[in-house]
Amino acid sequence: MHIGILTGGGDCPGLNAVIRAVTLALVERCGATVTGIERGFLGLLDGRCRPLEASAVRGLIAEGGTILGTHNRADPFHFFGAGGTDCSGQALDFLGRHNIDALVVIGGDGTMTIAERFARLGVPVVGVPKTIDNDLMLNERSFGFDSAATVVSDALGRLQTTARSHGRVMIVETMGRYAGWIALEGGLAGGADAILMPEQGYQIEQLAAFARQRAQEQGFALLCVAEGAKAVGGEWVIQRQLDDSPDPLRLGGIGHRLTADLEAHLGSQVEVRCTLLGHLQRGGSPTAFDRVLATRFGVAAAGLVMRGQFGRMVALQGDRCVDVGLAEVAGQTRFVPLDHERLQVARALGIFLG
Amino acid sequence: MHIGILTGGGDCPGLNAVIRAVTLALVERCGATVTGIERGFLGLLDGRCRPLEASAVRGLIAEGGTILGTHNRADPFHFFGAGGTDCSGQALDFLGRHNIDALVVIGGDGTMTIAERFARLGVPVVGVPKTIDNDLMLNERSFGFDSAATVVSDALGRLQTTARSHGRVMIVETMGRYAGWIALEGGLAGGADAILMPEQGYQIEQLAAFARQRAQEQGFALLCVAEGAKAVGGEWVIQRQLDDSPDPLRLGGIGHRLTADLEAHLGSQVEVRCTLLGHLQRGGSPTAFDRVLATRFGVAAAGLVMRGQFGRMVALQGDRCVDVGLAEVAGQTRFVPLDHERLQVARALGIFLG
Amino acid sequence: MHIGILTGGGDCPGLNAVIRAVTLALVERCGATVTGIERGFLGLLDGRCRPLEASAVRGLIAEGGTILGTHNRADPFHFFGAGGTDCSGQALDFLGRHNIDALVVIGGDGTMTIAERFARLGVPVVGVPKTIDNDLMLNERSFGFDSAATVVSDALGRLQTTARSHGRVMIVETMGRYAGWIALEGGLAGGADAILMPEQGYQIEQLAAFARQRAQEQGFALLCVAEGAKAVGGEWVIQRQLDDSPDPLRLGGIGHRLTADLEAHLGSQVEVRCTLLGHLQRGGSPTAFDRVLATRFGVAAAGLVMRGQFGRMVALQGDRCVDVGLAEVAGQTRFVPLDHERLQVARALGIFLG
Amino acid sequence: MHIGILTGGGDCPGLNAVIRAVTLALVERCGATVTGIERGFLGLLDGRCRPLEASAVRGLIAEGGTILGTHNRADPFHFFGAGGTDCSGQALDFLGRHNIDALVVIGGDGTMTIAERFARLGVPVVGVPKTIDNDLMLNERSFGFDSAATVVSDALGRLQTTARSHGRVMIVETMGRYAGWIALEGGLAGGADAILMPEQGYQIEQLAAFARQRAQEQGFALLCVAEGAKAVGGEWVIQRQLDDSPDPLRLGGIGHRLTADLEAHLGSQVEVRCTLLGHLQRGGSPTAFDRVLATRFGVAAAGLVMRGQFGRMVALQGDRCVDVGLAEVAGQTRFVPLDHERLQVARALGIFLG
Lengths: 354, 354, 354, 354
What we know:
Four copies of one chain form a homotetramer.
Chain A: E1 2-7, H1 15-30, E2 33-37, H2 42-46, E3 49-52, H3 54-57, H4 88-97, E4 102-107, H5 109-120, E5 125-129, H6 145-166, E6 169-174, H7 181-190, E7 194-196, H8 204-218, E8 221-226, H9 237-244, H10 248-251, H11 254-266, E9 272-276, H12 288-306, E10 312-317, E11 320-325, H13 326-329, H14 341-348
Parallel strand pairs in A: 1-2, 1-4, 4-5, 5-10, 6-8, 6-9, 7-8
Antiparallel strand pairs in A: 2-3, 10-11
């Protein structure tokens, strides 16, 4: 049996742990040959790939990123971009030429959408969900998410000492353009006083009043703000930037807007400062939790391959590894429900949520 | 409403996060008064306690240990020790004298057994499970466990560099006298080549053969061994020490025994070294995961108090916070089932399990 | 003997370790009374202060920030701002009223300038240098600097995994408005391919050519850029912003300018991304090195007080704690000499320096 | 020019950073060829070596251990052991056969002694000091030392939370068989209440009295004890073990002895616990400080090679990289002088030193 494996979309801590687990499980258990396809789906088109052996992957569990490389925009069905050419035939040729019996595809929503199209063309595909933002459908927790929440939590801890020393309001802007999972989890873990998410608009007057009061009582206030958070009634800050720019992070998004707004409301007596965590959230070695989860996903994906269950994606539900149909996942986003237990927890602690 | 809270048994990362969440939830949501009882059940006997206010606990989420102190052996029903006096009347007096309406008790198996006895005497008690070892019944994951597994995983990462440089077999001895959860989770996350647990005996000849082969292929081998692991057919190492000593860790347990055994089998060509992680596994700041879990447990316990549901312990099942009867938990140990998914994952990766 | 102690200017990891060491040394060795003055020189004006006892400070060594609080702009000689009122009389009243025999002042260039003026008015003052940027005169290494360089080095390590996975050029913008010490030390430790400092202008064409080549050879390139770095021949980016804004960090400084410039030169084939570390560099617990250095400074300052050597500032030269005149330090900046050994080291490794 | 490089003795964080710096400096600056000799001096005998290229070493700065491997006991002049055969001729053959113009040797006292013998035989040798213990002569600070002190400091921080929660006396046993540098630096950084070193004997009665008092005042006590510390008047614990065992760490050394002694003196009211850090102190990624220092040493060694200054070892004096004669270093140990500034600092803080 010959299996191809690729990683698509943005990188994420734990990708190498999945590659390692898929490879070890297939090689050790059933003597398969595994080929790593480089730079996401691009490798299916330009033919860049390399053999993966047990000895080469065994030490990978702690390594950040992906040894295979990845590519954000390489869609064989639209190469490049939305109006691009359909090059999927080239990809099928590649699979045929290398006698690849099945493809394990690790990626996010975009990658699963492509994988599903390949599945419909008859390619035996198994998906592994990759989303730092934790917003893939039918999958309750993904590797990389705990690592990102840990970066947020650590940053809040660091900033608390400077906030306290100067009596400041400090804002941390996290990832989460559409869903607020990282801001919520990282904010809870880091002891944030307020958590702002795309799912729940905030009124700046209320936020400013809360921040002023908390700063008086506690000497400082920590705000944890998802990239996609937005003021209610006001304009959709991020949306406008998405139209104008490929990378809103670089233009200064909600964090800087909020800093200016809060300063205007709080006056010169309270200093407000903002920190963007940006790429720090996706780099580096995965946490122990993410290493184990990525390893479980990898072994589960190898199991699907060995049992011939294709067109499926591995997922975590409760604490169980299950599998779901690729078609059920593609093109959707899992938002934080406004009655989610974590939000109830945050409310019980007196955290401002908008 | 006046609520007492205490922490019993060995300390654990996340205890302060529970104390914080219980207090904030009770004070902010229903204006309760919260009193911290010091040094576990001992405080019920000697009357040492102090008021807990929102402002005092809000900054506690990252702090290791317990600000209330704890005590390993203070059982009011047997004070001190198995043949001790029943001083539970004194404890009841304390609760009456301070008009304490309910007691939140954070602790492990021993603590829950005591809590259950108080519940039978009519004390309104709510339990919060505390077990780094993750071996309390009906609770699938406890705070402190992720922190301990992270210490194990980090230690394996550190030791790998020295193992590789010297071509050694290196052993890490973890906590887990009765159940192997920490060795299993930490070993998976740290890329251990072998994981030995109390639940699965090992044959030294097989282990030595495996270690020799792995060291040849990979240049080194990493073994992750729970404190309570045991050789098959051989004597029960730990059990004998338990009889002789109050603290087997200090005498050199399975790790040192295994080092000597492996050296005997491997000969002078392969060096074997052992590291005991000991108390490092229970000290320090909790991981982001544990902070959130402890916070959820704390809020859930406050909810039980507010709804008057006593004699219950908060628990995690799947990813849901539920509650179970104290009587169902007390006096039992949750072992790693030999068909557990994590063990299947380990086997799929070619990890030696005995 | 009654000693006052205050922290001025921006916060910095290690301030609490100094406060602890000064207090322990004065209390334990000569039975002095120590009073902590709050929020920098502001406490001398509004009278906010509190007694510091050995038991209260002993646990402070690992705590970030300053328990006394600090203030960036509270100059008793110009209250507030450059054209402000001279309130130094109030400060002298405070010292007299509390019978304070000597003042230990921990701070940077601005704080030392104020301390020196007080010294000229006859106040027995001892200074302890505080500068994350490591740019105080006559002091070769200050606490906080190693902590900041560690944050930079860790960030470079994290970003390397994502840079490598995506084949990107990644920029890290560090502190260092006038001197490049942090970028240089952190960049060396983090394996940066290029280090840009205020002391050495760069030509964008050369930098772009270097980045392209390094990205081709290595698959990615990491650039470490001090806040105050500037293009040669071009305008002085930061200077202009200093005129316009109280906080250039928040407007997007050199990092974003460089990102745009490099993208223009490198074309669409190479992605460029930027991360601002900002306040992460000054928050959090000090490194072991900084804890020891801050402790040495604190004990040395206590020694100056006990020996009656006032108007002096503690300093590190070589690895020796010495003391220098406050007047020699005030109003100056220690730049990186272009023939400094660290720069020679960077050149020997093929690091691009401009 | 063809340069050989090898690492001897125990591994240490920063070895790879030296290998990287030597290689980059020699390859980039003067187009030299560099060959890595494997497993210390053993590679000179069995001929195992490999070419080192710039691209292969550039990413090594953060990696723990040594990619070349090392060997504790491979002395070509006594192969193996004190009464072994002189195989130095074989080593000279190897150097001649590969046309190696100079040898860079990274190691400790034993390695420098061997290097010095080769120098006397006419081999152009340059030494780089490697000693976690920081006890090589004429070199004030070595890479790996800051990393080890950081492990000790972090461990003390972790153990403090559990010590405080249980009201315990906790002992951390560090490396330092002959010199107490690690215990001193790590103990200062970690806020230890007592620091015991080989250079300064302690009386158990005084230590017990101090620990009892500190535990009463502070609620706990932290003791940082070098492996080679010893009781005054009592037997030389470690020395006896050195006679009996190749590895005293594994038998339970001073830490366990001290635990038992303190328990005997303190009675059942105060619990005493001990943690051995062992190999954790030498594994893992070097700190930022050690990465820079190792890099400086590597570049300085390359400079000696290029200038033809052989028979010399790089060293740090003050903060300057200098070089000293191999003969001045070999066979000696740098102890902590009892009037050393760090000891004076410790005394000023009220730390018990014996």
